[in-house]
Amino acid sequence: MTRVPTRLSKPTFRLRDLLGDTPAPIQINLLGAREFEVGMITGFAAGKTRGLCAKAIDHGVRYPNAKVLLGRKTYTEMVNTVKQPFFEMALPLSNAGWFLKPTRWDYREGTHHARLVNGSQFFFSNLDDPVKFRNEEYSFVGVDQAEELNAEVWETLVARVRWDKVPPEGWQTVAAANDQGHNWMWRRFVAFWQTHAARQDRCAVNPSCVFLAGHPDEEGEPRNPPVPCSTRRFFHGTTLDNKHNLKPRYLATLLSHPMAWQKHFIYATMEGGVGRLLPDPRTIPHVEPPAHWPRWRAIDHALNSPACCLWLTVNTDGKEVLGIPSKWVYVYREYWQGESSVDQHARRILDLSHNERVISTVMDRSTFHLTQSRQDGIRVSVADLYAEEGLLCMPSVGDPFARVERIIKCHNAGMVVSNACPHLIRQMPEYYAEASRETGLYKIVNKSDFHSVDALGYGLMVLPQDSQDLMEYDDRPEYLRRSGVDPADRRHHLLEWKRFKKIEEQEQLQTLGTLAFGVYPMSEFMGNGSELTPEYDPWREQ
């Protein structure tokens, strides 16, 4: 009978027991890191995944009764690229009695759990739904291919590292990623130091602490004695750093790609990367646009993630106003809210509109066939539920890449974004596409997370504009736009045209209410009247 040790008092295994005789530099650096948050951005095959697994095992051995979470965004990739190398590295240690072996030591088996003889536990999970971790506690969290996640998921995981069976100075999180330009990883671990280094009120205990002077408690007040420092550290690695562990043919294949590809996937230069679709937005301090500028809303609704609404307008004054050049699009307001019902979203959006004269509201076309149950049990479309709260919407048009083209065109022609739209400002540089390995077709990476970019695309696709002139919103008959017409005659025809146009709009809305929303009277859908008011006259003479 094999004797099994009952406790591991200290990490007595050697580095080569986990990583072989020639570990990659980034693996050695990672094993030595003791900061709370560690970020790695590397090229292909730089050794980050095996380094992450080794770090997790080291943590479990170093701290008895530790609780470790290892994961990646999707289940299949978690099993194949995280769990498999972990089990391969742990198998020799298991044979030596370090692990309590499950019935089958197989990374593919249903249980996502491993346990050391000192009581430390390892859990493996997909990370596409951060809600399921909100009631969990860990002492170590490791994420592979962290660029696949968004910042909110990472922040949720970081907040769950509080396992009290491990001393706080042992708590740690590790995010391993490939280069994806100036995404949240770059901002959190690289750009962070550009401002942090110049800070005058850094933590007196540890200069790398992310807190200002004094560490806050749950109410935001300084603690005495201070809590353990919340620190960050960043490692950069290239494929060539690990070339001694790579097959020459594989390395030659990587180096045969174009230089732009190599910068991204081999050298991890973090310059923007292959596949980036959108430019950085032009931003200005928030200003409320003049009341007479035409305004639109665009909504990207989501069931299990935040919903987003953007407000857009165009400077139609023929001159620069409030720092916004003539004919430029201005995105001036953002609504971003999760875990709310449709009626709550609709009411908040209407409240934020402040009774503005909004020409139209466009929403993701899927909401017109996606149904939910009302309180009376009747299933209706999400668009109908918005309409019942007084928020009438029209369906979006165009596929994602058509909307990307429109965003780029508007950006080049002239578009600014208020700094009151933080999610849009953050997400535009992170909007990427990659080619499918199976079909070769391009798709948006993590498209379901980019609600603000989708909303922007919806809004810009319906702006009354052509490719030459963003300002033009003039559907008057040609004889009213012609020069040289007698002023009195023009005024007479203009008043008649306005009158008939209002009648036409009322008839269209009535028809829409009858066809799309059953037999409900239109008054039930008009809410506070902000969508259409009798005095609304977009063509009033200035």
Overview of this protein structure:
This protein has 15 helices and 19 strands. Helix 2 (25-32) runs parallel beside helix 3 (48-62) and helix 3 packs across helix 4 (75-95). Helix 5 links the parallel strand 6 (140-143) and strand 7 (172-178). It has an eight-stranded mixed beta sheet with strand order 3-4-5-2-6-7-1-8, sandwiched between helices. Strands 9-17-12-11-10-13-16 form a seven-stranded mixed beta sheet. The protein has a two-stranded antiparallel ribbon with strand order 14-15. The chain has three domains: 25-213 and 223-254, P-loop containing nucleotide triphosphate hydrolases (Rossmann fold, 3-Layer(aba) Sandwich), CATH 3.40.50.300; 283-473, Nucleotidyltransferase, domain 5 (2-Layer Sandwich), CATH 3.30.420.280; 480-542, no CATH class. By secondary structure, it is of the alpha/beta class.
Structural class computed from helices and strand pairing: alpha/beta
Helical proportion, percent range: 25-40%
CATH superfamily of the largest domain: P-loop containing nucleotide triphosphate hydrolases
Number of helices: 15
CATH architecture of the largest domain: 3-Layer(aba) Sandwich
Layout of secondary structure:
Elements: H1 15-19, H2 25-32, E1 37-42, H3 48-62, E2 67-72, H4 75-95, E3 99-100, E4 113-116, E5 121-126, E6 140-143, H5 151-159, E7 172-178, H6 184-196, E8 232-237, H7 248-255, H8 259-265, E9 283-284, E10 295-300, E11 307-314, E12 329-337, H9 342-353, E13 358-363, E14 371-373, E15 379-381, H10 382-388, E16 394-395, H11 400-414, E17 415-418, H12 422-427, E18 433-435, E19 442-444, H13 451-462, H14 478-481, H15 487-516
Parallel strand pairs: 1-7, 1-8, 2-5, 2-6, 6-7, 9-17, 10-13, 12-17, 13-16
Antiparallel strand pairs: 3-4, 4-5, 10-11, 11-12, 14-15, 18-19
